[in-house]
Amino acid sequence: MPKKFTENADEKTDDNKTFILVGSDEKSDDEFRVFGIVGDINEEKSSEAIYSLMHFHRTREIEQLSDPADVNSEIIKTVRPIQFILSTHGGSAEEMFGIYDVMRNVKKDCDIITRGLGKVMSAGVLLLAAGTKGQREIGRNCRVMIHSAVGGYAGSLHNLENEMEEVRYIQEQYIKALVDETNMTTRQLKN
User: Fold this and answer.
1) What pTM value is reported for the model?
2) Residue percentage of the chain with pLDDT more than 70
3) Has 89 been annotated as catalytic?
4) Which one of 20, 130, 170, 177 has the largest count of C-beta atoms within 10 Å of its C-beta?
């Protein structure tokens, strides 16, 4: 990844992937600790989100002189937050819980700023809520929606019963996690 940004959008290529970077020369890429999920939450986007969280968590601390003009001044450590942008109709509950578990571990010692843009629905709602309290934002026109877990199955009665049990379990875990991350009650979320 480039070390400097330019005043205008600057196209960079690396291994046949194109990145559009916008910023100023005064900011280093350390200040752009941003990743996001736009679109369905699936295995590919989940792995990208998890690896981004783990990388940003591992590189969270920087050391700086308290007085940059004095090389003998005290060295201070700063923990830099992570920004997570969401715009999704939702997706896989299993992938959502994978990202959520990593977020819970990361935010023990590194703030996660979550920002909802456009729409944050279904599985995206828990990820938005999982940001550090006081650091969660949604755009003025962002739509937020939760719903019951959805499943569609065919097969033997035994298999259908197992699938129903799994859907109920996922629903209960989702509600419990939202209760843990918000000021809402189970009753409010189920109604």
Assistant:
1) 0.79
2) 84
3) no
4) 130
Average pLDDT, the chain: 85
User: Within this chain, do residues 38 and 128 fall inside the same structural domain, yes or no?
Assistant: yes
Of the candidates 28, 47, 147, 148, the residue annotated as catalytic is: 147
Segments of the chain assigned E as strands: 10-14, 17-21, 34-38, 61-65, 75-79, 82-88, 112-121, 136-138, 143-145
Residue at 46: amino acid letter: S
Q: 44 and 125 share a domain?
A: yes
What is the reported pLDDT for 28?
A: 53
Are 125 and 185 part of one and the same domain?
no
pLDDT surpasses 60 at 44: yes
Domain range for 120:
33-147
Contact by Cβ (8 Å): 37, 124:
yes
Mean pLDDT of 98-127: 97
Structural domains in the chain (count): 2
Name the nearest CA neighbour of 81 among 100, 62, 102.
62
Of 89, 122, 148, 158, the active-site residue reads 122
Q: What are phi and psi of 54, to 5 degrees?
A: -65, -40
Q: Is 122 a catalytic residue?
A: yes
In-domain check, residue 72: yes
Q: Is there a single domain that holds both residue 60 and residue 75? A: yes
